[in-house]
Amino acid sequence: MFPLITLPGISGSGRSHWQTLWEAADPAMIRFQPSSWDRPDLDDWISALDRAIGEAGAPPVLVAHSLACLLVIHWAARREPSRIKGAFLVSVPDPESPVFPKVEAPSFYTAAPAKRLPFATLMIASSNDPYGGVDYARRKADNWGAGFLIAGAFGHMNGASGLADWPQGRMLLEAFSAGLRN
Predict the structure, then answer these.
(1) Which residues fall within 8 angstroms of residue 34, CB to CB, at 6 or more apart?
(2) CA 20 to 30 Å from 13, out of 29, 67, 116, 159?
(3) Which pTM does this prediction carry?
(4) 28 CB contacts (<8 Å, ≥6 apart)?
């Protein structure tokens, strides 16, 4: 199994978020630690991801939610992507969405690079995500060469979505990671 690094979005993942619950069940998971969860700065978050990758000891699978999905895309455009085995991106937000946190995260309020990612990627979307529509997510998956799956109608797929430890998501992550071994 590959090291897993969880990348929560803005404000971090609370106690009822599936990422936090997965970390509690698997102490080997590494959570990246930026300087601020509430005032995200893209350069700081990229540095925090660099540190987490360095701690992983082997190319990891990134398990990103929301704003951190955009972090992964920006990181891949600036860094050595061979340091990553794969990316599992959940609820990719659209910076042009009216509810995007433009004030709190202005450095993320920019178009994400559109080039193909050089590592395996699976994007999971919700059919009723207020932060990013299915059409946007599908276009981005095509741009990035990512697999794409609509998990159902779960809003932003966060703690408020009622997913609890999201066993279907964990199974998807395990299947995705198993495919990386080949």
Answers:
(1) 40, 41, 44, 45, 47, 48
(2) 116
(3) 0.96
(4) 3, 4
